[in-house]
């Protein structure tokens, strides 16, 4: 019996020794878990994109770790004003730069493999420059920089024969719509370059280059000549060819010289007679000038008075309309009140029928009421934060896919983003200088005059007027757009 007890003690001691060894190993030999460290990698050379098309800015992590639970931030020069932000598993649009709204997309299919590429839609010239890629996982973060170059190829070269010069013919080559500044070459059929007579570059208001260059062609040049314009980023060329026959070059005979002499004598006589007539007419012109100045002055006064009368007539509309929002046109992410007088943008998309009249991309909604004649007005209370737009639109305007909210697309509206206001004119938006943000805005429509006006009811000041809106006989409806944080509410106004 004593032998059995001794064996049991030896077994217990062995178990305790094994347990202590395991605890010691776990405590001192297994490293603590920390935030995963990584590097942010991407293209070493600048990325090239074409105006009007889409581009993808590549970026991946090394080692290949998942970025689904990380913060992914693409920004330009300011960290807080971002191009695109992905955080807590969702895209964040609160402080997205206005010029990138609804134009960016993070390719989430690649996040599990560490790919955080960004797609930019409808590339513009202002998109060029540096982009910062910032990724954070717990307390660890890493940043890298990528450069985007933007380019576009212009029109085919247009060659024209202008005039005679220096014993030859001056030929001009023109082309427009290039970025960056293109290279221009004149070449013969063997590829030899011709010296340029002139070369002029200019930029339009959109930043695109127009080039005009000219050369002198002599009569001994009988082969084809080409004007070639090259995009230096895309390494693309556009070329036009010209051939001028000998019959175009000047040939002066003795008879031609005699005729030129006679014509010169006649010209001198004509000039002398013209000078005499001009002197006589100059006396009468002074008297007529006085009367013309007085007439212009009166015309200007009449125009000013007419403009003031039109404004006063339009600023006090005849009929105030009690509007309601048309739920059948509202984007599925917009939330309307029960009385259809209030709209804001929700966080998720509602399950609504995709009828032909519903917006599916832009977060817009139309009013139920429509107008094809008369003068009408209604009041809208707007948030001073977020992004919103309000105005009128043709009933036939596009509702599916991307739209451009401009008069050409059938929309006359004003726009607010971060306390800045614009009229949605084209080709460029018109900035509006408001001393105070309006709390209640009156939208006025005069169908016959083709005018749409916006008036700050609280401060009693006009905001903006579209003077020549072309409704083309169509039904016009109130139009609203709401982006996160903002809201719009239809309110009654007191007409004076």
Automatic annotation (TrEMBL):
Q: Name one GO cellular component term.
A: external side of plasma membrane
Keywords, in A-Z order: Disulfide bond, Glycoprotein, Immunoglobulin domain, Membrane, Signal, Transmembrane, Transmembrane helix
Q: Cellular location of this protein?
A: Membrane
B30.2/SPRY domain residues are 303-496
Pfam families from the xrefs? Answer: C2-set_3, PRY, SPRY, V-set
Residue ranges of the Ig-like domain?
A: 31-153
Transmembrane stretches, by residue range?
257-278
Q: Which domain of life is it from?
A: Eukaryota
- Gene Ontology biological process: regulation of cytokine production; T cell receptor signaling pathway
Q: How does it sit in the membrane?
A: Single-pass type I membrane protein
- Give GO MF terms, alphabetically: signaling receptor binding
Alphabetized InterPro entries for the sequence: B30.2/SPRY, B30.2/SPRY_sf, BTN3A2-like_Ig-C, Butyrophylin_SPRY, ConA-like_dom_sf, Ig-like_dom, Ig-like_dom_sf, Ig-like_fold
- Provide the primary localization: membrane
The UniProt record lists the keyword Lyase: no
Family under the similarity heading: Belongs to the immunoglobulin superfamily. BTN/MOG family.
Q: What protein does this entry describe? A: Butyrophilin subfamily 1 member A1-like isoform X2
